[in-house]
User: Which sequence fits this backbone?
């Protein structure tokens, strides 16, 4: 399973009630660094399948979620566990740094 699209409708079920850690990628189609980060996030979704849920949040479509997470700049990566934020990083990050956030 690749990354999933997270919306206001599925956020509760897919993120807050998830039995595994969740990596959220807040992005927008017009954002250059977001497009650079996208293949890295895709790789993580495949490599950590079954261990970590990976979701993408389009900030243009999901402004309320972006506001709730106080996302001011994108890309913004948020790692959640048991419905709580455990890590947050703004800007492009290499794969190794994202993997470190998941540990």
Assistant:
């Amino acid at each position: 399973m690749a990354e999933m699209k997270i919306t206001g409708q599925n956020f509760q079920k897919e993120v807050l009630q998830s039995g595994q850690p969740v990596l959220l990628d807040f992005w927008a189609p017009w954002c250059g660094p977001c497009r650079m980060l996208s293949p890295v996030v895709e790789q993580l979704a495949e490599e950590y399948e079954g261990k970590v849920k990976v979701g993408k949040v389009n900030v243009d479509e999901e402004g309320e979620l972006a506001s709730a997470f106080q996302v001011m700049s994108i890309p913004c990566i948020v790692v959640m566990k048991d419905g709580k934020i455990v890590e947050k990083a703004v800007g492009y990050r290499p794969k190794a740094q994202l993997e470190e956030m998941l540990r």
In short: The two ends are 21 Å apart (CA to CA). The longest helix spans residues 32-47. The chain has a mean pLDDT of 95. The helical segments are 11-16, 32-47, 63-68, 95-102.
